[in-house]
Amino acid sequence: MCIQYVFHFKKIGEGIMMEIKWLEEVHKRKNEIIEDTKQLIKIKSVLNEQEATEDAPLGKGIKEALQYMLKLGDKDGFVTKNVGNLAGHIELGGGEDLIGILCHVDVVPEGDGWSLDPFGGEIVEGKIYGRGAIDDKGPTIAAYYAMKIIKELKLPLKKRVRMIIGTDEESNWRCVEHYFKEEEMPTFGFAPDADFPIINAEKGICNFDIQFSSVIEEKTSNDVLQIHSFESGRRYNMVPDFAEARVQIEKNENDFLLEFESFCKEHNVVGNYFKENGEITLTMKGISAHAMEPEEGKNAGLYLASFLSQFPLNQHAKRYFSFIRKYLFKDTRGNYLGINYSDEMTGDLTINSGIFSFDKDKGIIGINMRYPVTFLFDEKMELLQHLEESNQFQVKILSNSKPHYVDGQNEMIQILKRVYEKQTGEKGKLLSIGGGTYARSLKQGVAFGALFPGKPDVAHQKDEYIEIEDLLKATAIYAEAIYELAKSE
Q1: Closest Cα partner for 304 from 246, 235, 368?
Q2: What span, in angstroms and rounded, lies between the C-alpha atoms of 185 and 175?
């Protein structure tokens, strides 16, 4: 395909300044951008450690998505590198300073209830649908084409620009951990993995388990309900949209099932049951959402656990299910746990009960906590100790990513603001989020798009999509932003 490049020039004093029509350049490549977005979405790049191998440490799908991006870079003449099939990069330009564009190609599991194929990359009414469309495959393609436009226009750069491609952002960040052990840390940069205009503050993110062990001296002769198993949730950073319990009822089975139906109706959740071999399997459907704002979903695990907690149970089950109902049900701010907190910079602490697992030997509740920049982590977490003693559980901290903040007067932020305001005509406000992006990997890193103000955030939800118009507009913003950041010493 032959592309014509049109430049507009303005005379400034004795010099000439080249003015590039960025959105026009994007539209010349519209079909390619859409097609590459669709093809990347079609790759089921969900973490699958069961099929992990030495050359595919996070599963075949994730490796395939990483290779897809690196092959694009090879085809278009960029410098590329695969770093242990955990991460990779695509590089442009020269100079001592390095600008990082931090993206990821892994996605959360698709979940239930889709009206389209979650890995189909289908276009309906101007939207590309699929898991990862907005988080983060669409924005990754936008940033890639931004670099490609700069390369094809042969614009002079004084800094290197490197797209760093991660593969474990939705789980444990093993990709960036491995990458930065092997490769150079950028001087500054941005992650196209959140909202426009500019996010310069991100909450801390802590995953921890609340663990209950079975007690030996249980008396079960008077139990009405035996709970053999209870499961809900796939990820700490997702609101569970499905829960299942296998139970055995000693008497009044019909009354129990009528109460279940009444509970579902009262709380506007979908519940079902079936009987097999003397057991009843209860299922409940909720609404999935991102853990940074759990109230946007409906936690199926919390609702089913709350229902089960109302019946006479053995000691082990009573401790587990009563705890959920008392301290977690209908509270996403940590009020009942006694760790609620808020500041002006980043807002409320949030709690997402993301994983539930219970059997006769143990009970686990997996919590994702997002806490404000000024939250005193060690001091506040000590407040859980009195609950541990009275409820006989243990807290096991699995990971803790500290809050991230970049001063609003930072030169990079000022450049991004100018570009955003020029292209959109809207104010380049500074924002804070409960989500965690790769921007926090950098000392001077911010999140920059690609979700525009006023648009629904469908990341991690069924029927996730990106609007084609927004995809193209984001590409133009990224192209000008990268050029402005890299053109001067």
Answers
A1: 246
A2: 14
Number of domains in the chain: 2
Whether residue 353 sits in one domain with residue 478: no
Which residues are within 8 A (CB) of 276 and not within 5 positions of it... i.e. 6 or more apart? none
**CA angle 150-156-160, nearest 5°?**
75
- Does the active-site annotation cover 122? no
pLDDT digits (tens, 9 = 90+) for 136-167: 999 999 999 999 999 999 999 999 999 999 99
> Which residue is catalytic, options 106, 170, 293, 464?
106
Give the tokens for residue 205. Answer: 């993110």
Given a cut of 50, whether residue 254 has pLDDT beyond it is yes
Would strands 350-358 and 362-371 be described as parallel, antiparallel, or unpaired?
A: antiparallel
Distance, CA of 207 to CA of 370 (rounded, Å): 9
Peptide bond between residue 136 and the one before it cis (omega within 30 degrees of 0)? yes
Q: Give the confidence band of 19 by pLDDT, cuts at 50, 70, 90.
A: confident
Q: Residue 14 above 60 pLDDT?
A: no
Give pLDDT tens digits for 329-385: 999 999 999 999 999 889 999 999 999 999 999 999 999 999 999 999 999 888 887
CATH number at 286 reads 3.30.70.360
Which residues constitute the domain of residue 120?
7-203+404-486
The CA-CA-CA angle for residues 333, 432, 22, to 5°, reads 145
Residue 169 among the catalytic residues: yes
pLDDT for position 392: 83
| Residue of 264, 367, 354, 242 whose CA lies nearest to 308 | 264
Name the catalytic one among 36, 168, 169, 470: 169
